[in-house]
Amino acid sequence: MTAGVDTGGRAPGRPRSAHVDEAIIEAVLGLLAEGGSVETLSIEAIAARAGVGKATIYRRWSGKEALLVDAIASLKGPPPEPLGESVREDLIRLLSVGPKKPDERTAQIMSCLVPEVQRSPERYRLYQGLVEPRREVMRQVLRQGISSGELRADLDVEVAVAALTAPVLIQRMLRWHPGLDDESLPARVVDTLLAGLAH
Amino acid sequence: MTAGVDTGGRAPGRPRSAHVDEAIIEAVLGLLAEGGSVETLSIEAIAARAGVGKATIYRRWSGKEALLVDAIASLKGPPPEPLGESVREDLIRLLSVGPKKPDERTAQIMSCLVPEVQRSPERYRLYQGLVEPRREVMRQVLRQGISSGELRADLDVEVAVAALTAPVLIQRMLRWHPGLDDESLPARVVDTLLAGLAH
């Protein structure tokens, strides 16, 4: 879950404990869910909540920012892999990953991070680093669909990625429309967009 | 700009000054843009920044929450009116309203409000009160388009509203994709969705 982001000074040969990693990530998410801002989030508070020492955290992460990226990545889940069955199935699959069940806690945490990301160019860069690989997976599915003839040759791929992703995102993050059912939304979005609005 | 939300105890017959209203709203937006949270936003601070007395604010608004709703409404601009020319033109028009130019200040303020809205059922209700009339205008355009035969008869109207609105919203609020041009996005979204993704 935290692979590739641990840039901390972990002693060579010391085995990582997945359990401890998870407890630390969970502590970050718990503090954010309770309304803590990134500014007020301290390694001390995270350590106390996870029941570990500060040194244990610093052995695993270079600091708060790196830890935060892993915490968000854990909410988002691993980058999805398309199955290559059909464009429709792949798109629904891509839009259905993320928190297994969009819950209030996730909405709370994600929404807390929005202003933090806007406030700092460095965080915006980290955020783009999380989002871009996911956009790229969807682009590949769309390009594949163009090649196979399932999709229009003149498709505006970048806008299609945005139009597919955004409704699910705002629903998960903002609870934008209380009348939309979260569970069925990915399939409804994909079907509506594939068919198009025009007669 | 503040019509219909002023529930404060304004003395009968006392004329409203649009200039003072604007200065107060501008003070709220300025404080939010500088990273102030709704919790830390005080009538004292707003009054000081606007150069008015607290009583002046309380004559115009019942309190902080009502003032906040008007401040957000002023960012969003007046609810748009479709021209009834064509579905395409009307949809582009509806998606192009809001801040004339999506700027960093608006992104900052809007993103600051996201967690505040999630945190309080009362604010969520106020937020829905702002969003729902805008959704309804777009629904009407879509239903009109179904009637006129421009749009498919079996259109999933609720999902179409979400799919049209969401890409513009996340771009404005999150600067979701640095590669997308904000100016041309509404037209690109509308054209992509009208035509559909499928071949």
From TrEMBL, chains A, B:
<keyword id="KW-0804">Transcription</keyword>
<dbReference type="Pfam" id="PF16859">
    <property type="entry name" value="TetR_C_11"/>
</dbReference>
<dbReference type="GO" id="GO:0003700">
    <property type="term" value="F:DNA-binding transcription factor activity"/>
</dbReference>
<dbReference type="InterPro" id="IPR023772">
    <property type="entry name" value="DNA-bd_HTH_TetR-type_CS"/>
</dbReference>
<dbReference type="InterPro" id="IPR011075">
    <property type="entry name" value="TetR_C"/>
</dbReference>
<keyword id="KW-0805">Transcription regulation</keyword>
<protein>
    <submittedName>
        <fullName>TetR/AcrR family transcriptional regulator</fullName>
    </submittedName>
</protein>
<dbReference type="InterPro" id="IPR036271">
    <property type="entry name" value="Tet_transcr_reg_TetR-rel_C_sf"/>
</dbReference>
<keyword id="KW-0238">DNA-binding</keyword>
<dbReference type="GO" id="GO:0000976">
    <property type="term" value="F:transcription cis-regulatory region binding"/>
</dbReference>
<feature type="DNA-binding region" description="H-T-H motif">
    <location>
        <begin position="42"/>
        <end position="61"/>
    </location>
</feature>
<dbReference type="Pfam" id="PF00440">
    <property type="entry name" value="TetR_N"/>
</dbReference>
<feature type="domain" description="HTH tetR-type">
    <location>
        <begin position="18"/>
        <end position="79"/>
    </location>
</feature>
<dbReference type="InterPro" id="IPR050109">
    <property type="entry name" value="HTH-type_TetR-like_transc_reg"/>
</dbReference>
<dbReference type="InterPro" id="IPR001647">
    <property type="entry name" value="HTH_TetR"/>
</dbReference>
<dbReference type="InterPro" id="IPR009057">
    <property type="entry name" value="Homeodomain-like_sf"/>
</dbReference>
